[in-house]
Design goal:
CATH topology: Four Helix Bundle (Hemerythrin (Met), subunit A)
Shape: globular
CATH superfamily: CDP-alcohol phosphotransferase transmembrane (TM) domain
Largest sheet: 2 strands, antiparallel
Strand content: under 5%
Strand order of the largest sheet: 1-2
CATH architecture: Up-down Bundle
Number of helices: 12
Radius of gyration: 25 Å
Length: 280
């Protein structure tokens, strides 16, 4: 009977309650930024329905900027977690796959009818596949250290920013809609291909980790100039940045191949198998 009615032990209850400790804010801050980016992506879908193309585009751009901040902030505060990584991937899919594709559909792709919607679906699915592959490669323990400076395929935020190039051109005065939706659709399919391809794109994760003292002031001045141009000529600067980014992809591929060959030369040669008559 003693097994059926065990004695009450208040110490055991207290020990279970003690497990629910307060969570440090450094663990919450990156996730809050991710949620803000998600809200911006969803808001862009509402704004484009209301005909506010420029504001919707800015929402997606800010969401892309916040996506670059939350991961770096998590690593800086040592607040990385599996929960944060999964939340970030879901937010990226909504912002850069669903919201970006929907904005482009309302902008011009609806003129292509069903084919335009197929392009939107292709872009969204490509973003989902890109993010899934990225999550898998994070857990790869055999990945060389130098490969961490490169993305396999175009990252999702960069894919969304480059896919919006026709919108930037339209805002600065280029008659994109008069040229027809087909060239825009072909361009977006090209961007979707880049996201799921294995073309290496430079990540720049180690850029700026160590800066010579002589370059500090010039960097400050350059940042002020770029920020001023971005605020004064937002979409003109974005157009130039996207074209330059696409033009630099072959340079990134060449750099990756060079490092790959150097790594192969440094790798130890596999041991030769003994002949059948040799003793082991």
């Amino acid at each position: 009977m003693s097994d059926l009615f065990p004695p009450f032990e208040p110490e055991r209850v207290e020990s279970k309650r003690a497990r629910f400790k307060p969570i440090p804010f450094r663990l919450l801050a990156p996730n809050v930024i991710t949620l803000l980016a998600l809200c911006l992506g969803l808001t862009a879908m509402r704004l484009i329905v209301e005909g506010k193309l420029e504001t919707a585009t800015i929402c997606i751009l800010i969401a892309a900027a916040l996506d670059g901040v939350d991961g770096r902030l998590a690593r800086l505060l040592k607040g990385t977690s599996r929960f944060g990584a999964e939340l970030d991937s879901l937010s990226d899919f909504v912002n850069f796959g669903v919201a970006t594709g929907y904005v482009l559909w309302i902008f011009v792709l609806h003129d292509l009818k069903s084919f335009g919607w197929i392009i939107v679906l292709t872009l969204a699915c490509a973003m989902a596949l890109r993010l899934a592959r990225f999550n898998v490669m994070i857990d790869d323990p055999d990945r060389p250290e130098w490969q961490k400076n490169f993305f396999v395929g175009m990252p999702a935020p960069a894919g969304a920013i480059t896919a919006m190039l026709p919108v930037y051109l339209h805002i600065v005065g280029v008659p994109v809609q008069e040229y027809g939706a087909l060239p825009v659709g072909i361009y977006i399919l090209f961007i979707a291909f880049l996201t799921i391809s294995r073309i290496p794109c430079y990540a720049g994760k180690t850029l700026g980790t160590r800066i010579p003292r002589t370059q500090v002031l010039p960097i400050f001045v350059a940042v002020v100039i770029v920020a001023g141009l971005l605020f004064a000529y937002t979409f003109e600067v974005l157009t130039v940045v996207v074209i330059a980014y696409l033009a630099l992809i072959p340079v990134s591929v060449a750099r990756y191949r060079k490092l790959e060959r150097a790594h192969a030369l440094q790798a130890p040669a596999p041991a030769a198998e003994p002949a059948s008559g040799d003793q082991v």
